[in-house]
Specification:
mainly beta, 7-stranded mixed β-sheet, 4-stranded antiparallel β-sheet, globular
């Protein structure tokens, strides 16, 4: 599975952004897709995941109610809609894939897209 994240940028607090992750590869079928982020000087942290059929999702407490993960498995894309952005959401965001629902242990990673939220 190869992953390509896009959609990052510089926004103001309260604004919205939509990140996308395009997947390719014959082995994409059945994979759980997740979003992670790494802020400067901090460890990478889980943001959200979505099951293969889109029926199950999970979010970090810090983004619950503001971020929404979705996927179009036919187009092999996953999106992260980020609303009411805060300066503490500033980070490089990565999409990832794995088999099986989990907040860790992802096997495949994209290159990251940078999100900067100014106050």
């Amino acid at each position: 599975v190869q992953l390509q994240a896009s959609g990052g940028g510089l926004v103001q607090a309260g604004d919205s952004l939509r990140l996308s992750c395009a997947a390719s590869g014959r082995t994409f079928s059945g994979h759980v897709m997740g979003w992670f982020r790494q802020a400067p000087g901090k460890e990478r942290e889980f943001v959200a995941y979505i099951s293969w059929d889109g029926g199950l999702t999970a979010y970090a407490d810090s983004v619950k109610g503001r971020f929404t993960i979705s996927r179009d498995k036919f187009k092999k894309t996953v999106h992260l809609q980020m609303n009411s952005l805060k300066p503490e959401d500033t980070a490089v965001y990565y999409c990832a894939a794995r088999l099986g629902l989990s907040r860790s242990g992802y096997d495949h990673w994209g290159q990251g897209t940078e999100v900067t939220v100014s106050s």
